[in-house]
């Protein structure tokens, strides 16, 4: 079977998993959210890179089907986590093409059957999305907002979104890209950029989230800068669904 055939077959037989990576509030180390990250083990040894799988599914027009399944799994995890942590949220990554279509939404809303089925869901969209140039996209963002979803601007600092554009969506957080966090020890310029991004988040009234935090020194710096949340291997790697409960019970 070709790679493409294996991806299609994995999707149709539900051989995909979500892993969950926590986001920690820096002030008190509480876990406030988990980001769902797709993993697709195509055979026992080698999971395919997620980025590649997304590309294949997009090119075949199957990304909506994946998003639907991911969202249903994410909602299950959200319900399980909220038993002990009622304020927790789940972040789901969403590709630009999926965001502008919303075909995937009706079946989901129907299946979940509540008035605001996306309460507690954060959609992570990357900054490369042309948020205000596409009418479809803007109305999709509003529609999702009406269903309770909020947005996270992922990989912030790598694209060209203007502050005006950011004001038009129901934004909950800005995620400072890990390429900046990686350099904060060695580079004054990176430290200044991180500080600036934290301040931009706060001026928009949203949380500043640092991704790719691997070292205690990075966390200390972020704390001094007033960054709100941290995510990265220092706190936890993405966890398999069945490990999340155990991880939470051992945390702190
Ligand atoms: O965790 P990892 O390095 O494999 O993630 C690779 C990329 O895939 C990241 O950019 C992430 O945003 C994206 N990604 C992970 N899960 C999903 C998903 O369910 N849907 C979409 N569209 N992208 C995802
Ligand atoms: O595009 P997006 O920002 O969603 O992708 C995040 C990617 O970064 C995921 O693939 C995730 O597995 C990875 N990741 C998460 N934490 C860390 C970290 O501390 N260091 C590195 N290098 N990668 C990380
Ligand atoms: Na993300
Ligand atoms: Mn990111």
From TrEMBL:
Residues 1-252 form the EAL domain. It comes from the Bacteria. This is EAL domain, c-di-GMP-specific phosphodiesterase class I (Or its enzymatically inactive variant). It comes from Ferrithrix thermotolerans DSM 19514. The chain holds residues 737 to 988 of 1006 of the full protein.
């Amino acid at each position: 079977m070709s790679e493409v055939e294996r991806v299609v077959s994995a999707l149709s037989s539900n051989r995909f998993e979500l892993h969950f990576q926590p986001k920690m509030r820096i002030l008190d180390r509480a876990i406030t959210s988990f980001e769902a990250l797709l993993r697709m083990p195509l055979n026992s040894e080698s999971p395919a890179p997620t980025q590649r799988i997304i590309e294949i599914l997009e090119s075949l027009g199957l990304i909506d089907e994946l998003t639907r399944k991911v969202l249903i799994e994410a909602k299950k995890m959200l319900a399980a986590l909220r038993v002990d942590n009622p304020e927790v949220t789940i972040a789901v990554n969403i590709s630009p093409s999926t965001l502008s279509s919303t075909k995937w939404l009706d079946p989901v809303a129907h299946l979940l059957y509540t008035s605001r089925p996306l309460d507690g869901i954060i959609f992570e969209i990357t900054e490369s999305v042309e948020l205000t140039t596409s009418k479809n996209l803007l109305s999709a963002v509003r529609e999702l907002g009406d269903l309770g979803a909020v947005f996270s601007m992922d990989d912030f600092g790598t694209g060209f979104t203007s502050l005006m554009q950011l004001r038009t969506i129901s934004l909950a957080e800005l995620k400072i890209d890990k390429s900046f966090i990686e350099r904060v020890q060695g580079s004054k310029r990176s430290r200044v950029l991180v500080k600036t991004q934290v301040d931009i988040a706060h001026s928009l009234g949203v949380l500043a989230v640092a991704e790719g935090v691997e070292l205690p020194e990075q966390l200390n710096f972020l704390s001094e800068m007033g960054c709100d949340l941290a995510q990265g291997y220092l706190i936890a790697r993405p966890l398999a669904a069945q490990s999340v409960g155990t991880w939470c019970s051992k945390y702190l």
